[in-house]
Amino acid sequence: MATKNITLEQFEQTVSAEGITLVDFWADWCQPCKRFAPVFEEASETHPDITFAKVDTEAEQELAQQLQITAIPTLMAFRDGILVFSQAGALPAKSLEQLVDGVRELDMDDVRKQIAEHEESHHH
């Protein structure tokens, strides 16, 4: 499954879907983004069960602002609608593979528990 460009409207439903979604925030003028694009594309071929989405921060400035994207490329990973990874900078193929493995191995029950505890501690 190849990468797909998503817009502000599509973002919410894309990342809230079950399973793993990786989102690459990029822009046309950004050289590291251009270097990262084929790496991201290749990973999408290797992992057909994962959604590889791209956001053009020039076209989707509102979305980039909402997500507080300050540097590009920024890569975010969502699993079952939960943001589990966010980092600026182009990753080499090997690091991207490690990231995918890491997200796959997450115990989502554990993640949800941590989030619940985190939110609880903020309400008091």
From TrEMBL:
Signal peptide limits: none
Protein origin, superkingdom: Bacteria
Domain Thioredoxin: 1-105
GO CC terms of this entry: cytosol
Keyword terms, alphabetized: Disulfide bond, Electron transport, Redox-active center, Transport
CDD domains associated with the record: TRX_family
UniProt key word Electron transport: yes
Protein's UniProt keywords contain Nucleus: no
One Gene Ontology molecular-function label: protein-disulfide reductase activity
NCBIfam families xref list: thioredoxin
Record family assignment: Belongs to the thioredoxin family.
Protein name, UniProt field: Thioredoxin
Provenance organism: Georgenia muralis
